[in-house]
Design a protein that fits this description.
heterodimer; A: alpha/beta; 6-stranded mixed β-sheet; 10 strands; about 30% helix; B: alpha+beta; 10-stranded mixed β-sheet; two-stranded antiparallel sheet; 13 helices; about 60% helix
């Protein structure tokens, strides 16, 4: 069973009378444990593809299966469960809650999945991303690289099978970017990462290049 | 094994609630000024609500207590306005209509009568300030009011024409003691303090008492009375007795039940307006909190989107927003209730200063039940104020914040 399977995946945005095809007829198969980099210029459809895989958005047409389940058929709670338990998402600008400490930010998905009794996972993950000593700090007290590590720990805390990262190194210098990619590689998960940095993309198992919403 | 699972499950639930509260409190601390202002608004409305309801309860209780402590079953007065008569009873308003002593003698002959007491009420300026109620009384006055005891001194001496007995508040206000001179400026005559009554919680505390004959002479109304208090042998005979007295020309009979009903009817109208003001105060507070929460949701579209993206359900988002509104309102309710309790004495004094007639006793009565009710109402307001913002936040699709 593939981790991610897409057939003819299309996403069209409608603005007034205008239709914009952000993604058009994308076919792809990603196997469990693969580290795949989605590359392409700005506006190529990388973020749209990740949003669809992450169940943050719904395709206009086409088939998308995650871990063998047809995402199109999922509604309401099932979709929330898929987002919460099977997919972890790392955003380019970290998107941490500014009022919560590092530890609380990482524990937030556990709160939503009513699994706070597994809180020792938070400390394990913070140790794994090298932030065990910063658990009481607020996001504003951390560097960009450290905040991205927190975001990665948060994405992993519910033990997802798939980790999606949208330009995770976009706001970081090359040293911090390399550290983040090394960290992701070390996770031994199905990882789909979008980037326009070819150096980083070359460190993935496979690259899928998008241009104008199509795989090229 | 089942026990362990149950304990773990309970521990998990507790952790979730604790963490939920922590997230909510931190969010409120993020915008301290806004949170403080919103809480203050709720506190103000709860303070108004609790104080007004406390006033309604306190006023009613004091009124009933004052009527009960009049001591009479019936008051016979000359014919006139029933509201005026009620005021005469409660506050001692001066009615410029008098009845002859002969009516008293006629009433005394009635077989149903146990005790009567003749009253002559007038108002005079005392010292250099305002007007005070002067009441002419006779020995049977104390038989009617067994709770009225002397704090100091005693009853008038035989044939005394220059002695006064002071109500508790009058003595305290003028700092008078037994044997002190007490000038009645309006008459140009000085009296001597013979006795001071203990606090009774009725209008008697604010009255200057003189012997009945002295009062009649001072006001130049010999053989005239303003009222006759009557206690019956059997209260169930009150209708028959009233019917007989009604046959006496120029006289009206006021039963205490009538007085109570008349004054409570008036109070009922006032309570309707009080209730309306309280509801308006609560509605303004709810709208204020709702507005604050809607602004908060608008500002936090991105954060809410992220929460949805990392697994928050619609219910979680709804609960978080509602919990914030609930926390604001509950904090406001506790603060407002506290202020109302602490300020109840001041509110009582303010009411006394503003209203022309107030019964003796605690006017703003805020008991535990009212306080808890006020706080519970504030908490309910919070849930109400959080529904629309919470619903709007929960409808946000995770992708919307990215656009």
């Amino acid at each position: 069973m593939s981790a991610i399977l897409a057939r003819g995946l299309t996403r069209i945005y409608r603005r007034s009378a205008e239709e914009i095809a952000a993604l058009f007829g994308v076919d792809l198969v990603i196997e469990p444990g693969e580290f795949v980099a989605i590359t392409g210029a700005s506006g190529a459809g990388k973020t749209t593809l990740l949003n669809l895989i992450g169940c943050l958005d719904r395709p206009t047409s086409g088939l998308l299966k995650l871990l063998g389940r047809n995402v199109h058929a999922l509604r309401g709670k099932d979709l929330e469960i898929m987002r919460r338990q099977h997919v972890g998402f790392v955003f380019q600008d970290y998107c941490l809650v500014p009022t919560l400490t590092v530890e609380e930010n990482v524990a937030l998905p556990l709160l939503f999945s009513r699994a706070l009794h597994q809180r020792n996972r938070v400390r394990d993950l913070l140790a794994r991303v090298g932030l065990q000593d910063r658990s009481d700090h607020l996001p504003r007290e951390l560097s960009g690289g450290e905040q991205q590590r927190v975001a990665i720990a948060r994405a992993l805390v519910n033990n997802p099978e798939i980790l999606l990262a949208d330009e995770p190194t976009g706001n970081l210098d090359s040293k911090q970017g390399n550290e983040i990619v090394a960290l992701l590689r070390d996770m031994k998960l199905t990882i789909v990462l979008s980037t326009h940095n070819l150096d980083l993309a070359n460190r993935a198992d496979r690259q899928i290049k998008l241009a104008d919403g199509r795989v090229v | 094994m089942a026990d362990v699972t149950q304990k773990l499950s309970q521990k998990g639930k507790n952790l979730v609630i604790f963490q939920f509260i922590s997230v909510v409190l931190k969010e409120l601390r993020r915008h301290r000024t806004r949170s403080a202002l919103t809480i203050s608004g709720v506190a103000l409305s709860v303070c108004v609500l609790v104080s007004l309801l406390g006033l309604g309860i306190g006023y009613r209780t004091s009124l009933i207590q004052s009527i009960d402590r009049l001591g009479y079953h019936i008051l016979v007065t000359s014919k006139g306005c029933p509201y005026e008569a009620a005021t005469l009873l409660m506050q001692g308003g001066v009615i410029p209509m008098y009845m002859d002593e002969a009516i008293h003698r006629e009433i005394l002959r009635d077989a149903d009568v146990a005790i009567t007491t003749r009253l002559f009420l007038g108002s005079l300026s005392v010292h250099r300030e305002g007007f005070s109620l002067v009441t002419g009384i006779e020995n049977s006055f104390l038989e009617m009011k067994p709770w009225l005891t002397f704090q100091r001194g005693e009853w008038f001496g035989e044939g005394a024409a220059d002695e006064v007995i002071l109500g508790y508040s009058v003595a305290a206000y003028y700092r008078k003691n037994i044997g002190d001179d007490f000038p009645l400026k309006g008459l140009g005559q000085t009296f001597r303090v013979r006795g001071i009554f203990d606090r009774s919680g009725t209008q008697d505390d604010g009255t200057i008492f003189v012997p009945l004959g002295v009062a009649q002479r001072l006001f130049d109304k010999q053989e005239k009375l303003t009222g006759i208090g009557v206690k019956l042998k059997d209260l169930s005979r009150i209708d028959e007795f009233s019917a007989r007295v009604f046959e006496i020309p120029s006289v009206q009979v006021i039963t205490m039940a009538q007085v109570q009903r008349t004054l409570l009817d008036l109070l009922g109208t006032a309570r309707f307006f009080i209730g309306t003001v309280a509801i308006v105060a609560v509605a303004i507070a709810v709208l204020g909190v709702m507005n604050t929460m809607l602004i908060a949701v608008f500002e936090r579209t991105r954060e809410i989107g992220v929460m949805r993206a990392i697994g928050a359900s619609r219910g979680d988002v709804f609960a978080l927003i509602c919990a914030e509104a609930f926390t604001i309102c509950t904090a406001g309710g506790i603060a407002g209730g506290g202020i109302a309790v602490l300020g109840s004495r001041m509110a009582s004094e303010a009411v006394r200063a503003i209203l022309p007639f107030v019964p003796a006793g605690v006017l703003v009565q805020i008991d535990g039940l009212l306080l808890i009710g006020g706080i519970a109402m504030a908490a309910g307001m919070g849930i109400l104020a959080g529904i629309i913002p919470g619903w709007r936040a929960s409808r946000l699709h995770p992708i919307e914040w990215m656009r």
